[in-house]
Amino acid sequence: MLSKIAIPSLFMIAQVLAHQNLHQFWVNGVSPGYEVGIRMPPNNDPVVDVLSNDIACNVNGANGANVAVIPANAGDTIQVLWDVSTHPGPIVHSLQGPVSSAKSATGVGEWFKIQQLDYVDGKWANEVVMANNGRFSFKLPSNLASGEYLLRSEMLALHGSTTLGGAQFYIGCMQLKITGPGGNCSPKYRLPGAYSASQNNIYIPNFYYGFVPSTYSAPGPAVATCTGGGSQPTTLATTTTSRTTTPATTTTTTTTTTTTPATTTTTTTSRTTTTSSRTTTTTTTTSRTTASGNGAPLYGQCGGQGWTGPTTCASGTCVVSNAYYSQCL
Question: For the region Disordered, what residue ranges are annotated (predicted)?
């Protein structure tokens, strides 16, 4: 009798523990405090109706009047702290703004992605977050206009995606005041509106039978490209090496003297040789680096626009998350 009661109880506990919330974040390693600057939902239940306004900033997430607005700069490193979950799925971060007021913005409307991690090297994003004790880091774009923004963190649990409406969205919205050089980011997408319950990255009937995780991409458009504002656009680095051989000219002069009984004639012949120039251009795009020994630790940052730290990994592979952030996985 005891075992019949204990087994479902343990199952229910496991389900509750698998639910999650965003609890804290850091800007360049400095946190405003636990649950400060975040629109906290009433519980850790998921949003499953993708057509509701809750898909933007979670239940009761439309009002940020009592939530602090945290300062940041374009290009800063953001680290978030989530409850860990064993449920497979991606992590996505998006910005809305500039808005007239982060406290009054509802979150309903246009957003643009600044980071996305799906399934890389045999691991879902939730596994990466779980292995790092719930923490995950990324960078703000360097091309952002100054103003107030909402920063949306989304973890999508796909274990229930075999059922229509079964995918679970966990969402946390942070309020930021960003100082930047200016810029425009695209593409943009609307919430609600961009997600539908039946699209093939939300409803996956064969998720546990024949589905290929490496083909998966999270809902919404690609990570945005931000341009303007006096900084370089958010594109992968390309290195071009040019080698030029300077033209060389060699002149050879030959003098011939002919003597006759009455006349001596001297003839001079000139020959000019020109060596043409050659330019070789090599373009290399690097998206991941594998290294051993010295380098960034597992799950540490190993690259991105403006990054001055290690670009190799002491353990794992350097994987591009976006133009601003690469991580050892």
Answer: 229-292
H helices present in the chain, as ranges: 2-18, 54-57, 125-131
Position 329 pLDDT exceeds 90 = no
What are the residue ranges spanned by the domains of the chain? 22-228, 295-328
- Per the CB < 8 A criterion, the answer to whether 140 and 74 are in contact is yes
DSSP 30: B
Q: Please, is 53 exposed, middle or buried when counting C-beta atoms within 10 Å of its C-beta (0-12, 13-18, 19+)?
A: middle
Contact 99, 150 (CB under 8 A): yes
The pLDDT-based confidence of 320 (bands split at 50, 70, 90) is: confident
Give CA–CA dist 47/61, Å, rounded. 12
- On the question of pLDDT at 59 being above 70, the answer is yes
- CA 50, chain centre distance (Å): 23
Under the banding of pLDDT at 50, 70 and 90, the label for residue 163 is very high
Q: How many CB atoms lie within 10 A of CB 174?
A: 30
Do the beta carbons of residue 140 and residue 179 sit within 8 Å?
no
Rounded distance between C-alpha atoms, residue 113 and residue 232, angstroms: 18
The two tokens of residue 131 are: 């292995």
Residue 81 C-alpha from the chain's centroid: 17
| pLDDT reported for residue 127 | 98
Q: What is the mean pLDDT of residues 255-264?
A: 39
Model-level pTM? 0.70
pLDDT value of position 149: 98
Distance in angstroms (rounded) separating the CA atoms of residues 171 and 150:
12
Fold type of domain 22-228: Coagulation Factor XIII; Chain A, domain 1 (2.70.50)
**115-124 per-residue burial string, b: 16 or more CB within 10 A, e: under 16:** bbbbbbeebb
Nearest to 184 by CA among 270, 241, 244, 110: 110
Cα separation, 282 vs 78, in Å, equals 34
Dist CA 81 CA 64 (whole Å): 20
pLDDT band, residue 29 (cuts 50/70/90): very high
